Amino acid sequence: MAKTATTDNDALVQEEILRVALRLYKKFGPGKVTMDDIGNATGRSRSSLYYYYKNRDEVFQAVMGQIANDVARDIRKAVSEAVTLDQKIHTFCVTKLKTSEEWKQVLKAMWSSINADDRPGHMAAVSTLHKRLIYHESNIIREVLSASVADGQARAVSPAEQDMLAFIISSGLRGIRNEITEHNDPHDVKVAIRMLADVVVKWLRG
């Protein structure tokens, strides 16, 4: 029992450290935030932080992982509140686009404050974040498909088809976002998402 309590407490401390680190990153940029800064903001000594993280680079990597977990949590929660297959797919698309845009602005602000020497490491961390997001998104889509097949809202699809569908949905959403937000494409994002969701649902229903 004591071991479980200690483990739970460690998890809470780690979560607090990462939340504080992210707040500091948003304000000052990752390159300017030291272990001392994080320790002071959490009311802990720098040496106590080393119990959880070896250095500030490890903290930064963990923050990127926490961002991926937060995005997945928000998407999964929104999807779980939808009822029909159509609603779940559409909700996934809308929430994915919304959370991606929110975090993209945060990452851009962080990037602008990073010096040239630190940028390669930052780019590697963002690349890892991207892979984690794809992993989480694929799992959520598989969960939706599994539940929809079980209750008769969708036909059975093979694991390979599930993987391809997850890829098509996620990459399609990124393409829509990039064209409209980065290249000022005049198409209506809501209409585009609605059509993508409709095409997916129609395919799933055969």
Write out key terms for the chains shown.
80% helix; mainly alpha; Tetracycline Repressor, domain 2; single chain; 8 helices; 206 residues; disordered N terminus; 0% strand
Chain-wise SSE layout:
Layout: H1 2-28, H2 35-42, H3 46-49, H4 56-80, H5 85-112, H6 119-150, H7 159-182, H8 189-205
Domains (count)? 1
Structural class: mainly alpha
Number of strands: 0
CATH superfamily: Tetracycline Repressor, domain 2
> What's the quaternary structure here?
single chain
* Helical content band: over 70%
Give the overall form: globular
What's the story with the biggest beta sheet?
none
Mean pLDDT over the residues: 89
The CATH class designation is: Mainly Alpha
Q: How many DSSP H or I helices?
A: 8
Specify Rg, calculated over alpha carbons. Answer: 20 Å
CATH fold node name: Tetracycline Repressor, domain 2
Explain what you see.
It is a single chain. This protein has helices at residues 2-28, 35-42, 46-49, 56-80, 85-112, 119-150, 159-182, 189-205. The chain has 206 residues and is mainly α. The longest helix has 32 residues, at 119-150. It has one domain: Tetracycline Repressor, domain 2 (Orthogonal Bundle), CATH 1.10.357.
Structure summarized in a few sentences:
The chain is an all-alpha fold and 206 residues long.
